[in-house]
Design goal:
Layout (H helix, E strand, L loop, with lengths): L4 H8 L3 E7 L9 H4 L11 H7 E7 H5 L52 H9 L10 H13 L8 E7 L6 H15 L4 E5 L19 H6 L7 H5 L3 E2 L4 E4 L5 H4 L4 H11 L5 E8 L4 H9 L4 E5 L2 H16 L3 H5 L2 E5 L10 H9 L4 E5 L3 H4 L11 H16 L7
Parallel strand pairs: 3-7, 3-8, 4-6, 4-7, 8-9, 9-10
Antiparallel strand pairs: 1-2, 5-6
GO molecular function, one term: ATP hydrolysis activity
Protein name: CobQ/CobB/MinD/ParA nucleotide binding domain-containing protein
Pfam families: CbiA
Length: about 400
């Protein structure tokens, strides 16, 4: 039997053979329609081109056996070799786009906004938005009070000292309540300064975030041109109120006088719209002179007993005798109805007395959140207490001079 020469060739070859194929560099010719705008010839070499121009491919023996003898003249074979498949590199998932707050749809001309309040909201929903009763009476009252508290002023800040001739009547508590009620609604910054010449406790009524005091603000005044620099010396309450503490050392606190208060007031003026000052007990110390000279309105704090009310009335008399009669006529009395010795039967008589001398009187009720004597959480106050603080804030803002005054 005659052996096929191809069988001998296949037997003589190894199981696999490596053949180097040198393919010509791919040439890109621009189509006719691109010639007019084609750039100059630029040599570009990509990783794929390099891999194709020179590569080593393992060809099985059976394929080699089918190739004609090299001595014969044959047309150049066209070998189609599939490239190995590469696993696709996973593309990292794009970070989710931040949620965009949906803008409120503009109201159609003549159409009122959706009402607030249980009954108006129910009627509005049941009627498929066809019947709009408007806000309920409590909601209208709340919005009106917010508008009064949020009244804006010009670039000059407004100063409001809180005064008392007797300790223990809740002057610091009233300062905190007033500051929180203002800061919770207003769009500008509100600061409470502890200007007590003795060791004040205003900073103890908020969460402390710094050990700095008004003394540090005085010492670093030339460096505190920007708010970020000043903010490191005050504590920031959740309601939005900022607090500048007094000195904790009674010996050093004596150095905080009218000059020191004026320096602090000048430093904070460019950054705050309203400054409430806890003036300390009494009215004859040096800081009181500086606070009254800058005051746009005053709040006088009285306890609920006859003796405490008498001392508060004497404070008004002292102000009138020292040429501050305009402040007395525009003053608001905060009547703390939770002090020791409060005579509930006499509260109406006390209120009537002060209404005859000042512009308004606000009664501050007992509240466990205030009675603790520690950090005051504005959101934890009883509704009536919070409403009293808001009434006090609105009355104070009502009496502040407007733009250009």
């Amino acid at each position: 039997m005659r052996k096929d020469p191809d069988d001998d060739l296949a037997t003589a070859l190894p199981p696999s053979l490596t053949v180097d194929l040198h393919l010509p560099e791919p040439v890109h010719e621009a189509p006719p329609e691109e010639e007019a705008v084609a750039l100059d010839a630029i040599a570009v070499t990509s990783d794929v081109d390099s891999a194709v121009s020179t590569m080593s491919i393992d060809i099985p023996t059976a394929v080699v056996a089918a190739i004609p003898d090299v001595d014969e003249e044959v047309a150049e074979p066209t070998v189609v070799v599939p490239l190995p498949e590469h696993p696709e590199t996973p593309v990292p998932a794009a970070a989710p786009a931040p949620k965009r707050t949906k803008a409120a749809k503009p109201l159609k001309p003549g159409r009122k906004p959706a009402p607030e309040g249980s009954w108006p909201e129910l009627v509005y929903a049941v009627s498929l938005h066809l019947v709009n009763l408007g806000d309920s009476a409590p909601v209208r009252a709340r919005k009106a009070l917010d508008a009064r508290i949020a009244r804006r002023f010009d670039d000059r800040p407004r100063f409001v000292p809180v005064l008392s001739r007797k300790g223990g009547v809740g002057k610091t508590t009233v300062t905190v309540l007033l500051g929180m009620a203002l800061a919770d609604v207003r769009g500008d910054r509100v600061l409470a300064i502890d200007a007590n010449p003795d060791r004040g406790t205003l900073a103890d009524r908020v969460t402390k975030q710094t050990r700095s005091t008004v003394r540090d603000i005085v010492l670093h005044a030339p460096e505190l041109n920007e708010f970020d620099e000043l903010s490191t010396h005050v504590s920031h309450d959740a309601s939005g109120l900022d607090v500048a503490a007094s000195d904790t050392d009674p010996l050093l606190s004596e150095a905080f006088d009218d000059g020191g208060y004026n320096v602090v007031a000048d430093v904070v003026s460019p950054h705050y719209g309203l400054v409430v000052t806890d003036s300390g007990t009494g009215v004859v110390h040096s800081v009181m002179r500086a606070t009254l000279q800058r005051a746009d309105a005053v709040v006088v704090v009285s306890g609920g007993s006859i003796d405490e009310a008498r001392l508060a009335s004497e404070t008004l008399t002292w102000l009138e005798a020292n040429n501050y009669g305009d402040l007395v006529a525009n003053a608001v009395v905060a009547l703390n109805a939770s002090t020791q010795g409060t005579d509930l039967d006499k509260l109406h008589d006390i209120e009537d007395h002060f209404r005859s001398r000042v512009r308004a009187v606000v009664r501050i009720p007992y509240d466990p959140e205030l009675a603790a004597g520690s950090v005051v959480r504005y959101e934890a106050l009883r509704p009536f207490t919070r409403d009293s603080a808001r009434q006090l804030a609105a009355l104070v803002v009502d009496g502040l001079p407007g733009e250009g005054e």
